[in-house]
Inverse folding.
């Protein structure tokens, strides 16, 4: 029997029995971890309020054996709040829906429990912090998070040079299957022709050029969101359940097919 301590973000919770919960966290040192928190659904439990989605917490686990991830779920026996990001997110619909999609994305990109995913963890912390402070439009923060999550997991799209042959850009065509912008010779069936402003926006979100992103027109933002959604769907092999609830003002516009 061993004790483990780590800091992590609560991704989701599930009811267990009459008073317990299964807590899913993305931790710094152990990647995605599921643990049982006993008694946290009782009205007098102060511990339970610290283990809500969006919370950044310092947690202690009790596990049978020498490894945190074993045959059974470990127990979450202590939790101290590091940053209550949820307080700045759950009261605003746009922030909440964007934040929920970020949590689901982080969970989907950490398939194997117990495997550290430090870059994804730090990316999630930064995204929730920015979202809770309202520094940029929630759907822009979400698209930036999705693009960077794809990048740290090896699926970074190309927005300048051809994704297939490397020919210097800019080029007109965008192919989800090919990995981003492609030249005329490498164009494949199903490629689309996005506007140059939408492509510039996505490049800015990926690189952190917020001055360019914040100044982009809504129609290009919606177009860019459609491309991000399609690209993410391709690499995850199925879409995010929470993405359809994200408030972008209007439905994403489809890019023109080549």
């Amino acid at each position: 029997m061993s004790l483990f301590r780590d800091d992590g973000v609560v991704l989701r919770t599930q009811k267990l029995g009459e008073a317990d919960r299964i807590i899913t966290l993305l931790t710094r040192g152990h990647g995605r971890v599921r643990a049982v928190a006993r008694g946290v659904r009782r009205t007098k439990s102060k511990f339970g309020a610290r283990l809500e989605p969006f919370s950044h917490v310092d947690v202690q686990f009790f596990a049978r054996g020498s490894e945190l991830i074993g045959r059974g779920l470990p127990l979450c026996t202590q939790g101290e709040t590091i940053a209550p990001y949820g307080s700045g997110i759950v009261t605003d619909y746009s922030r909440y829906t964007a934040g929920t999609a970020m949590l689901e994305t982080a969970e989907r990109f950490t398939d194997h429990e117990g495997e550290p995913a430090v870059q994804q963890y730090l990316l999630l912390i930064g995204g929730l912090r920015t979202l809770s402070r309202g520094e940029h439009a929630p759907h822009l923060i979400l698209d930036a998070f999705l693009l960077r999550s794809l990048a740290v997991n090896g699926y970074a799209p190309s927005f300048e040079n051809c994704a297939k042959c490397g020919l210097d850009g800019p080029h007109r065509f965008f192919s989800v299957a090919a990995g981003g912008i492609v030249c005329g010779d490498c164009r494949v069936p199903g490629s689309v022709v996005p506007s140059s402003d939408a492509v510039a926006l996505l490049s800015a979100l990926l690189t952190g050029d917020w001055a360019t992103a914040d100044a982009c027109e809504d129609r290009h933002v919606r177009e860019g969101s459609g491309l991000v959604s399609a690209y993410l769907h391709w690499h995850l092999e199925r879409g995010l359940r929470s993405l359809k609830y994200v408030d972008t003002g209007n439905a994403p516009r489809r890019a023109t097919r080549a």
Notes: Confidence is low (pLDDT under 50) at residues 250-258. The first strand starts at residue 2 and ends at 16. The radius of gyration is 20 Å.
